[in-house]
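Structure request: DUF4229 domain-containing protein, Actinomadura fibrosa.
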Amino acid sequence: MAWIPVSVSLGFVGLAVLAYCSFRVYMGVRRFGRELERTRRRLAPKQSALRDELDDLNGTRGPQAPGDGVRSS
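Returned structure:
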């Protein structure tokens, strides 16, 4: 009859280990989310400048005629 309390206590210990691991994963995901947000804020001005420059480059080129493309054969 001693196996019942042992199995119950082992079940609780197993749940405690799973809870600890879940908490660590949760904290890691939160830290990763903050890191992504910080990186996004740092890159936003550069991305905006690059997008503006790309728009300027696309605006200065004239449209190509349909027959002026690169031929594959």
